[in-house]
């Protein structure tokens, strides 16, 4: 395939988890999709927009932004200029990926990014629900510090006794003080953000300097291949309460997991669909999730350089179970696409705080050195024609603290549990 050829936005899932023995090139006919996620492939926002994990398909928002504080609507990186810069760099014996990244940076397009072959392969694996790491989620803390916000059960970090609230002072000797969260996560996974090489392989060591209260200590962990649980289903109020489905990111098979949860849910107790902190992922899986609650019809429209496209739900979804969707400032991209569709179609009540506002669509193409340019090509709209970029979605019931409790009250008014 010519290196500049744009892959058509096949609305099917990414191919499954990849091995690390060789870079996987974009191939003609590969099951690729457009991406609705944020800027750097380092982790998923969990709970609040500023938490970041080593390995999940969502990507954290730009570090210069804060929740509810958006930069101006970005320009679009020029694909021809990106490809030309990469080609000229390769001809001169330089890094095509670095040259392309410089063009993207100058463009002001805050959502486009460039991957080395190894980084893109790793991103594909994340979209399949797997990653190589130690099982830590981190967040910014007071004074420019970095704190542990979540530890994956059974991971190397969990076995070492690292706990939520511990301060992460350094990674492999590099201080985390005042460092962007994305850079810290990249070091945890084995490569500095934007580095020439992809994340490290399973078995590679990483040394962490930690602090808990007055205690300071060092742990050397060995990265391993882990699986993320991006869909968690439970009934926190017990057998008589509503089913809660928490989606952290839209990775491979998310839609199937949600459909199974809907089939098992009590029609009398209703469902809470928790999209708080969901930074996006595969649009195909967001549409599949919408299909679990809709009987066909429009989910969203989007444009690719002015060419209008549509996304439809499949028929046969459950349109009767009472549904409330929880959102917040960390709800982004494909999660906003799903929430907007359910709100516009009158299928769900949205409860929480306004969403992030990322409605840009990216599509990948291969550069001459095998790196991948994932560039913004357009924006999507909800079924009623609303734009999401920068403005986000406003919930039907705006709630700060205690959003889930209020959501249960709303759900009981819809006839679904208490």
Notable traits:
single chain; 418 residues; alpha+beta; Pdz3 Domain; 2-enoyl-CoA Hydratase, Chain A, domain 1; 3 domains; 6-stranded mixed beta sheet; 5-stranded antiparallel beta sheet; 9 helices; disordered N terminus
Summarize the structure.
With 418 residues, this protein is of the alpha+beta class. It is built from nine helices and 22 strands. The radius of gyration is 21 Å and the shape is globular.
Instruction: Tell me the Rg in angstroms.
Output: 21 Å
Please work out how many helical segments DSSP would assign.
9
Instruction: Tell me the count of domains.
Output: 3
Main sheet: which strands, in order across? 12-13-14-18-19-22
Q: What is the CA-CA span between the terminal residues?
A: 56 Å
> What overall form do the CA principal axes indicate?
globular
Instruction: Estimate the mean pLDDT confidence.
Output: 80
- The helix content is 10-25%
Structural class: alpha+beta
Largest sheet: 6 strands, mixed
Low-confidence stretches: 1-35, 37-51, 55-73
Q: Based on DSSP secondary structure assignment, what is the total number of beta strands? A: 22
Which CATH architecture of the largest domain is right? Alpha-Beta Complex
CATH topology of the largest domain: 2-enoyl-CoA Hydratase, Chain A, domain 1
DSSP strand content: 25-35%
**CATH uppermost class of the largest domain:** Alpha Beta
Corresponding CATH superfamily of the largest domain: 2-enoyl-CoA Hydratase, Chain A, domain 1
């Amino acid at each position: 395939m010519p290196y500049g050829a744009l892959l058509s936005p096949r609305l099917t899932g990414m191919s499954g988890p990849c091995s690390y023995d060789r870079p996987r090139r974009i191939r003609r006919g590969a099951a690729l999709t457009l991406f609705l996620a944020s800027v750097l492939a380092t982790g998923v926002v969990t709970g609040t927009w500023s938490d970041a994990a080593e390995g999940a398909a969502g990507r954290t928002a730009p570090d210069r932004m804060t929740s509810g504080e958006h930069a101006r609507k970005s320009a679009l990186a020029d694909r021809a200029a990106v490809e030309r810069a990469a080609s000229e760099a390769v001809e001169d014996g330089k890094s095509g990926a670095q040259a392309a990244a410089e063009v993207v940076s100058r463009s002001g397009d805050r959502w486009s990014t460039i991957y080395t072959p190894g980084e893109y392969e790793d991103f594909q694996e994340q979209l399949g629900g797997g990653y190589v790491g130690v099982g830590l989620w981190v967040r910014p803390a007071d004074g420019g510090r970095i704190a542990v916000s979540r530890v994956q059960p059974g991971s190397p970090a969990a076995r070492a006794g690292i706990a939520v609230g511990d301060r992460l002072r350094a990674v492999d000797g590099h201080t985390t003080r005042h460092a962007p969260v994305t850079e810290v996560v990249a070091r945890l996974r084995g490569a500095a953000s934007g580095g020439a090489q992809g994340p490290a392989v399973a078995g590679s060591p990483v040394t962490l300097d930690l602090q808990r209260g007055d205690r300071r200590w060092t742990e050397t962990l060995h990265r391993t291949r882990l699986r993320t649980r991006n869909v968690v289903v439970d009934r926190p109020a017990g057998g008589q309460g509503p089913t809660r489905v928490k989606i952290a990111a839209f990775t491979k098979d998310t839609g199937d997991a949600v459909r199974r949860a809907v089939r098992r849910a009590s029609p009398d107790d209703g469902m809470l669909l928790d999209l708080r902190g969901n930074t996006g992922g595969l649009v195909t899986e967001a549409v599949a999730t919408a299909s679990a609650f809709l009987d066909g019809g429009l989910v969203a429209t989007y444009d690719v350089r002015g060419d209008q496209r549509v996304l439809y739900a499949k028929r046969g979804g459950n349109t009767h179970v009472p549904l409330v969707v929880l959102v917040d400032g960390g709800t982004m991209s494909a999660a906003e696409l799903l929430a907007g569709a359910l709100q516009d179609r009158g299928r769900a009540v949205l409860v929480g705080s306004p969403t992030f506002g990322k409605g840009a669509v990216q599509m990948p193409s291969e550069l001459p050195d095998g790196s991948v340019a994932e560039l913004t090509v357009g924006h999507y709209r909800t079924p009623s024609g609303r734009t999401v970029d920068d403005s986000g979605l406003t919930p039907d019931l705006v709630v700060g603290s205690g959003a889930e409790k209020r959501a249960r009250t709303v759900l009981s008014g819809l006839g679904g549990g208490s």
